[in-house]
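Practice problem: Fe2OG dioxygenase domain-containing protein
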Amino acid sequence: MENLLSSSASHDMLPDSFVFPPDQRPPASTTAAVALPVIDLSLPRDEVRRAVLDAGKDLGFFQVTYNTHYFSISSSVFNLFALAWLGWPTLTTNAFVAQVVNHGVPEQAMRDMESSCSEFFRLPASDKSAFYTEDTDKPNRLFSSTVYGAGGERYWRDCLRLAVPFPLDPAARDAWPDKPAGLRPAVQAFVPAARALGMELLRLLCEGAGLRHDYFEGDLAGGDVVVNVNHYPPCPEPERTLGLPPHCDRNLITLLLPGSVPGLEVACRDGWIRVPHVPGAFVVNFGHQLEIATNGLLKSVEHRAAANAGVARTSVATFIMPTEDCLVAPAAELVGGEGGGNPARYRAVTFREFMRVYKTVGARREAVEKAFKI
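Answer key — structure tokens:
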């Protein structure tokens, strides 16, 4: 528990173990905030799935929000504005940045989840100590200051990780923290709705890519939903550290409640897009398993979290995962083609084996690609 950053009322100086080398620190001069385009899920289905897939080929991240006052904008139009404004010749290809309205997750469920998770990290240390462990095999645990890379640097984050099986059983619910009182009901209401949204987005992607609509049902999305509640306390020297280092997600698809304090940044060529706060929005991105399954049609894109000196930031990431023994491989419909011009780009791998390698080589995109690309 002594490693838990949120156990201290404040931090006067940044410990040396959190200082990243200069070439790995957040370069403020190359980070820009960009308003993300909108996809309205209430539009005709043909129009929606075309918009989702088109956006999926452009940047790899997008936002969904219940706010119906946004307007729909095509990813191609967005890219023209973004390129002109940012001054970059091209964006990372096959990635996804958009906002989606009418996503169907109740606003109250989102608010309850955000407030109860923030309240958890304000609890006295004695109320959290039972969940603190450095045992990475425990499905429900509280941990902090994970070591990053060979240099041994730690990043400025506390994390509560929860496992949510489907269907949910009482034993799994009882394994979550019982304080604050609203946490368990909030998780039970929020996660099924967030998962349902993720599965609907996957169905839209299937329809747009020419896969059967239920391709990602079953084992490919049948593992426990993993929820990471990330807490970034105020940092005395945010310019010298990171809340999370650059990484790609290991799962199928991620839905993030980013919180009201900006901090998420997405890789874009030689710079980073800082994702602005949009009330009521999810930020959604693709994981490595979706990239493998679509044979690279859609890509998992590197992202990171910046620290800040002013206020604490709490975000909630919902990860849709395969089962451990699920064999993930490029879909047959996306391999071959006329004249065999689209060969398989990734080898088939069980999710268990993928995770073993992922933990060994690290979360950077280049290292993971080298391990699994043919």
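Discussion: The longest strand covers residues 225-232. Students who identified this feature from the tokens alone can consider the problem solved.
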